[in-house]
Amino acid sequence: MYLCRQFTGKMKNIISILLLISCLPLSAAAQTVEKLFASLPESISLTWTEINRLELIELYKAGLTAAVENQMGDSCSLTRMTDNYLQIQEGKSSLEIIVLQMVNDSKVVCLIQTVCAPLCDSHLEFYTVNWKKLNNDVFITPAVKAQFIKERIDPDEQNARNVLIPLDISLMQFRYDPDSRELLQYYNTPQYLSSNDKEKAAPYLKDTPIVFKWNQTRFEK
User: Fold this and answer.
1) Is residue 162 part of a domain?
2) Which of 118, 172, 173, 196 could form a disulfide with 186 if both were Cys (CB 3.0 to 4.6 A apart)?
3) Looking at the DSSP assignment, which residues form a beta bridge with residue 101?
4) Is residue 65 part of a domain?
């Protein structure tokens, strides 16, 4: 029964992806992250004007320090830009824009907005190249808390794992590595633990992020 539900779920994803691909504009092949950042809607770019964004791009391309003052009087900087990736740092917050190639020569935009206060938490979204919002579920199934806890635990030491149970918030951080083309997901909630509880829980927590790879239709582990 479980395998049947799992298969049905995958089939629904495949159908959704095929329908989406048929609707995406083929002209997207000409889009670069530079153009997408310049056309970023104000609803996403709350503190940067179009002039701010264009100035950041020009400074970066000129090999200069790409930093400007936003509308709130804070400094923001463009730290990296390629044809398909861009990262903006603004205080303790960051924005990553990733242009992802689809199977039919169209493209999808992945947006990662991360806020650290002080622990980092990310918000992941997907858009067309015309900045129309897409359904996240079509493109990724993020890991949940249980997937960051080691599966095999000595029953005599179960109480050490129980330290994690009261953590009812879930701080998940996403980072994209443009060199390896991997999307990394980190579970940051355990950092809220006291030093003593953190030490008890450490042996039962996975010490590496969960890695997703883009397969030209969605991110898969």
Assistant:
1) yes
2) 173
3) 107
4) yes
Quote the Cα angle for 33-35-36, to 5°.
60
Return the residue matching tokens 């206060």: 117
CB 143 within 8 A of CB 210: yes
Determine, yes or no, domain membership for 6: no
**Nearest CA to 15 among 220, 218, 219?**
218
The total number of structural domains that make up the chain: 1
Rounded distance, CA 168 to CA 155, Å? 23
- Give the structural domain span for 155: 25-220
17 part of a folded domain: no
Q: Supply the DSSP symbol for 191.
A: G
pTM (2 d.p.): 0.83
Count of alpha carbons within 13 angstroms of residue 123, beta-carbon side: 7
Instruction: Give the angle subtended at the CA of 218 by the CAs of 208 and 216, to the nearest 5°.
Output: 110
